[in-house]
Model the fold of this input.
Amino acid sequence: MGVLELSGVGVRYGAREALSGIDLVVPEGQVLSLLGPSGGGKTSLLRVIAGLEPASAGTLRFDGRELTDVPPHERGFGLMFQDYALFPHLDVAGNVGFGLRMAAWPAHRVRARVAEMLELVGLPGAEARSVGRLSGGEQQRVALARALAPSPRLLMLDEPMGSLDRALRERLPLELRGIFERLGITVVYVTHDQEEAFSVADRTVILRGGRVEADGTPEMLWGQPPTEFVARFLGFRNVAPGVWQEAGIDTPWGRLSMADPRGTAEPAGDDAAASVTTEGRIELTVVLRPEALSVAAGGPISGMVTARRFRGDHVLITVAVADAPDLELELRGAPLPAVGDAVSLAVDPRGVILIPG
Amino acid sequence: MSRRAALLLAAPPIVFLAVFFAWPVASILAAGLFPNGQLDVRGLVATWTQPWALRTVAFTLALAIGSTLLTLAAGMPAAWVFARFEFRGRRLLRALSIVPFVLPTVVVGAAFLALLGPRSPVNAALAGLLGPSAPVLRLDGTIWAVLLANVFYNVAVVLRLVGGLWSHLDPRTEEAARMLGASPWRAFREVTWPLLRPAVMSAASIVFLFTVTSFGIVLVLGGPGQSTLEVEIYRQTAVLLDLPAAAALSVLQIGGIFTLLLLYARSQERLAVEGALRPAAEMARPPRTRRERLAVGGTLLGLGLLIGLPLLVLVERSFAGIGGYSLDAYRSLFSVSARSALFVPPARAIADSLVFATATLLIAGCLGLLAALVIGYRRGWLPRTFDAVVMLPLGTSAVTIGFGFIIALDQPPLDLRTSVLLIPIAHALIALPFVVRAVAPVIRAIDPRLREAAAVLGASPSRVWRAIDGPIVARAALVGAGFAFAVSLGEFGATLFIARPDTPTVPVAIYRLLNLPGGTNFSQAMAMSTILMVMTAASVLLIERFRGSGPQPF
Done:
């Protein structure tokens, strides 16, 4: 078993409400990522689950057992801290074996388990090394081994990639994912980086201002962000208010012809109808994916190129449109417009996201 | 700075130290080890093995060990509270908790005499409640008064050293231990304690060193038979006029302290643990649970009582007269009464003390600045050795210095016995390490990129010095001079040996007043102590304002 249930959980620091009304069920073996801007309450939620912070409201259960009066050292959870919080006075083996010694394992079993854990995280034979001399990536592995060694019922990770360089940040989430799958462990993974969250997790919860803003699989959230905040947080920049009426959408960039958003695929959410102000008129947030835009003579949007950024496999073009927010589009291959060129843009309707409200 | 310039700058402080430190200390050693011009330790050993000498050594060590343990017991919880919790008035309380450490020993002695002696308001309250048959609290003359005063005096050392490190320890290492199954106590023992141990050990060593040389407090508060080595050296010199015995004890004292300092330096090298330090601001948080609030409140209350009560009672007693509160004690400072312990109006002592302190400020300020320039700007073993030599007076007890002055500077070519200059010279010697510590680290901490930036912007080398180093060094020198002033105001041990009867400093005057019976003398002592406390506090506050956020000398 390993089911974590939160209902109505809140945390206050004096007058400030860090978390409120958090309802969440994490089934056994699920890897859940908590995503959100800093100050969104991610770390507070993690600390409440760990028992390092008292909840000021609500209840937490693990496998049906109420956690409120269980002190952190009796919860049997693992927590990997931001910046790892390794014990500087102990060597690698002392760090990894710490939880086992707390559980009064005999020394020879501790040694065997430490070796096994170091093997698992890819640092075999590192037992006698001093933690002060480890690189960032090695420290992260030791911290993970330390958290995993006592076989926690739930593993929590707080910004584990926080201080690593870019190459590691791209490689390690996959390794972590592999380890989680092998162990079949329930995981709560906190990060502010959406790419990391999506590559590690089965499911992502986005926190904003201490509340749940969105909850779904990475594919769902990416394909159809439920709110404007989520769309902007995920990195979409062509976002503006729009109005659907008569088989098209009026946006600040001009009119885009579209099917009825209540019809075919777009937009999700049953409350779309609630936004209908008058017959056949719906207020929406319109998101244009950068790859949905292309340069095409006679396109419906016209503007001027103000910036061009080389991004390796594509070039990011910024286009200023009169009386509207700038648009960003990704172009692959020549010909590329130069800064200062007037361009017309076409929109692929499949790359338009409509968010009700 | 060239080698020649460094030698020129270093010459005045070296000459000063040679004449007024090395020569007196050598004289003591010579008097003890070479009584008749030849090495002969029989006299030393004979003195050391006298029962009274053995008792003195045993009492000195026992007092120091007891004081150190009690100071740790009082200081550790407070260090924890200040390191881990954020609460209203935290900064103010932290600043106030340092106050005892800068107070002159005589003031501390007087304050505890006021609180624990026969004239304590506690006794007045008891008598008021229970009538004339009320029990009388009298802890003066007992070891408890001395122990309490030592704790009061040194708790700031633990707060600064242990609390300082603790506030930089990442609480998450302890939380990590909790998550791995350690109970709160186990997490402290396995994680926090090993990381804290170097600071605890160095605080304990420093408190031990301070209390093993404690003089003023024992002299004022201790009873008959309670004599530390320091007090005994003074008694043999000034009361029994047995200079060979005093020299024998001094040799023991110098040797003992030298050994302690060596051990301390060795242990510091061994104990250092690297890593896991974080900016303190991220660590403190308000107490959350009821238990935490109780712990924080209780600790602060205890600390407040320990530090606040003696000082409040001191001030209260200075105003308490026969018929209620008045300024009588303060007014009487301006006259010489027939039964007074002093040959001059006590107010004269205040004026004299200010003159001595100003002279000390000038002497120690100039010499210290010269030494600090060499130590700050030159690299290599020679300046490092010079640094260690300049620090020596700090490790030497004031009584050794006073006694050394008496036996070394009493004959031509240097017969200064009757010169009033002797007092500021002794004070400057004691203050010199403080000045150097205030200035040299600041010079070393100047970011060389600042100078490079100025040079790249077109400043000539001398212009760079005036623009970048000059203001920083001047400010640090002012801080150092302020320390010298404060040290001089409070210095007691050495002054007691060398002050002439007609020019007592304030601490000496207070001691003489406390030694005599009579309510007037007592009230005057309280009034003088209050004045000295205010003067010291004012100079320290002034220093703090100047100091800003540079490296701290301690």
In short: Chain A touches chain B at residues 13-14, 50-54, 71-79, 81, 83, 85-89, 98-99, 102-103, 131-132, 146-147, 150 (CB under 8 Å). Residues 234-356 of chain A form a domain with the OB fold (Dihydrolipoamide Acetyltransferase, E2P) fold (CATH 2.40.50.140).
